[in-house]
Amino acid sequence: MTTARKIKRASVTRYFLLIASLSALLLLSAGCAARAVNVNAGADIGDEAESSVFEIAFGRIGILEPEMFLYSVSAGGIFEYRDDWSAAASRQVSMSAALALQRMGYDPLIIPSALPDRKREFFHLETRMRYHCTAFQSDFFTERKLAFGPDDIGIYSIGSVDSLCNRHRVDGFLYMYGFEEKFTWERQRFLSENATEASPVPRERTFMAAILVHRDGRILWYRHILVDSGLDMRSREHSLRMIEALFD
User: Fold this and answer.
1) Residue 191, helix vs strand vs coil
2) How far is 199 from 201, CA to CA, in rounded Å?
3) Fewer CB within 10 Å, N- or C-terminus of the chain?
4) How many CA atoms are closer than 13 Å to the CA of 166, on its beta-carbon side?
């Protein structure tokens, strides 16, 4: 019985990883309607930034373990998921987010989702938050701007997380996920050989989304950005630069 339960849980985990991987390819290939940010110059080159959630009164923020999906891109453009790269980038993002929030005067708490007694609860919470992030990227919301205005964002809820907040002594949870492509040297050579003045060599892209929920379940803030600055989210410097652009 125990073995069957483990197999079922592993199958569910692989299913959601597959969905996330397919979403990554769709987002990257479609270009995504993300807010473009020049993270090297620190200047917003897309739409004007919405009012930040961090302008409102907020206490201790629980940072759920981020999920970064890094892919090695072959010469022919095939995306191969790299678990080792992804794990390193995910750890770095959580630390960068905590540091950024500290600099902004908040009290962040990194909460590993693999806590033995709470793994299932956090899995369900992260799934709900990730699905809301995906929904907010759809035309239903972006065309009507229902999810992005400071007066409207609070009308959406994922359901109360009060008990989890009490257990970990936080006022809400921040969840982040993203995708990044890393070109192999064969891919870089192929792109260089086929580049023209009208179509220069593209740079590696990084996508990130973040969502903040209050203990009563209200979604207080959401944002996603896409950059093509050749970042490496395993790097402390690049990770912090991306997080600061996301929180700006």
Assistant:
1) helix
2) 7
3) N
4) 5
